[in-house]
Structure formats: structure tokens, C-alpha cells
Amino acid sequence: MALLEIENLVVEFQTASGPFRAVNGVSMKVHEGEVLAIVGESGSGKSVSMLAAMGLLPWTAKVTADKLTFNGRDLLGMSANERRKIVGKDIAMIFQEPIASLNPCFTVGFQIEEVLRIHMGLDKAGRRKRAIELFEAVGIPDPAERLGHYPHQMSGGQCQRVMIAIAIACNPKLLIADEPTTALDVTIQKQILDLLMRLQAEHKMGLIMITHNMGVVAETADRVVVQYKGRKMEEADVLTLFENPKSNYTRALLAALPDNATGDRLPTISELFVDEGAAQ
């Protein structure tokens, strides 16, 4: 049984000019211990698909699906209270821009201990002990001291490690990482990716990696879903995708990689790809 199973997901937002379909009939699944990459340009509906699955979109968004289940449980049919017991505990998400995702008014220690209080029911001493263990696990130096720091007192890489610690605090079955290396320098990007893959292997979590970076896909993924303008263009195991892509859009993404480009200027996707109309 798949951890997360999505069939024909549609997400619409109301705009001044009428309804806008941000996700259009996307289907995918991820299993325990598997790394699934969702790849595509900005605006292709990658993050919206996962936020819809977690129930984190605003109430004005219209979300429908033929099937949307976690561990066999119907997410769309759940009450808000039932979903809150799962989100943050069994399904966790690392959001883009870690500094913006953390509350500047509270210490990072308070923010991680709040998750442990709500979902694990630990007392004050237990929360602090677990928070220190988590900071150690994600490689934050002097963890006991850092618990008392505010987000602005930490670097971008450290804030990302805090976000990862919060996400894994309750040993989730499924972790969703939304562009986890955005705005980090190359050295820190590698450290964060290595950390995520180590934690995924240790805890046998399902991991969904949302990215536009095909290099990250090649390094981390077992399977890949390619999205474009809210539609799924292709799904394949990572080796097949790179060696024998079926979609013209996937070929365009791969051709735009620096290693595959010729000449002084990289081609744009629009130069390489003509919209295929219907999803593959």
C-alpha cells in the first residue's frame, strides 16, 4: 500500500478574471522508504499539489481528486481535527525559505518544543531533551545553547537545519521537502541534501523532493514526476528518465542543463519546447 496516493488531483483558485486551475489532473504515489522527486519550472504546480494533499491551502481553493489517501485513509473525507492529528506528525513538510517559515518572535527551541508538546504530549523536561537530540541529529553545534536563539541569530543553513529538525521531530512516515536548498550556497546545499538522505535512510521515511534542479533529482530520487503548467507530463524511475525521456518537455529540461548545452548561452525552455497540449 502506498503511503500517499493521489489520483486526478485538481486545484482551482478564484481570480479577478475567473477560476485558475493551478493543478490539472495530477496523479502520483510514494511508498515507504522511497524518494520521489517532483520536478518542473516555477509555477508548474509542484508545491500546490503537496499543500493540497496536506490541507494547507486557503479555504478559497477548490480541491478535488478521485483519490487522495495517506496510509489508506481518505484525506479529503477527514475533518479538520482529524487532519491536524496527521499533519506535522505522520506527514511533515520542509518549506521554502526557512528564515521566512520560522516565527521571528519565538526562539527556535520554543518552536520545536511546541511541535513535541502538541503531537507527542511530552512534559517540559522531555521536550527539551528531545529538542537537543534533534538539533544534534541535524548537525547544529552547541544545541542546548542554540535552543535559546531566535531565527535572525542563525544563518540560512542553520535555519534550514532547524526546519528539518522540526519536520522530523515526531518521526513522520512521509517527509515533503519543498526546494530545501533554495537560497543556500553550494557547500551548504550539499550538506543539507546529504543530511536529508541520511535521515530518510535511517528512519525509512517516504521522501518527496520538490525541485527544479535536475542535478538534485539525479542524486536523490528513485522515481521522478515531471510537471508543467499544473499537468503531469511524465513519470519514470530516475535512470529511465535521464536516459530515455518520453516527454518533449522532459527532453527540454535535460537539454537546458549546462553539461548538455552547447555554445556560450544556455537555451531557454521556451526555445526547446512546444507545449504538447495533453499530458503524457
From TrEMBL:
CDD domains: ABC_NikE_OppD_transporters (cd03257). Keywords: Amino-acid transport, ATP-binding, Cell membrane, Membrane, Nucleotide-binding, Transport. Residues 4-254 form the ABC transporter domain. Its main location: membrane. GO terms for biological process: amino acid transport; transmembrane transport. GO terms for molecular function: ATP binding; ATP hydrolysis activity. It is a peripheral membrane protein. One of its GO terms (cellular component) is plasma membrane. It is found in: Cell inner membrane. It holds the Pfam family ABC_tran. Belongs to the ABC transporter superfamily. PANTHER family: DIPEPTIDE TRANSPORT ATP-BINDING PROTEIN DPPD, OLIGOPEPTIDE TRANSPORT ATP-BINDING PROTEIN APPD. Probably part of a binding-protein-dependent transport system y4tOPQRS for a peptide. Probably responsible for energy coupling to the transport system. This is ABC transporter ATP-binding protein. It comes from Ensifer adhaerens (Sinorhizobium morelense).
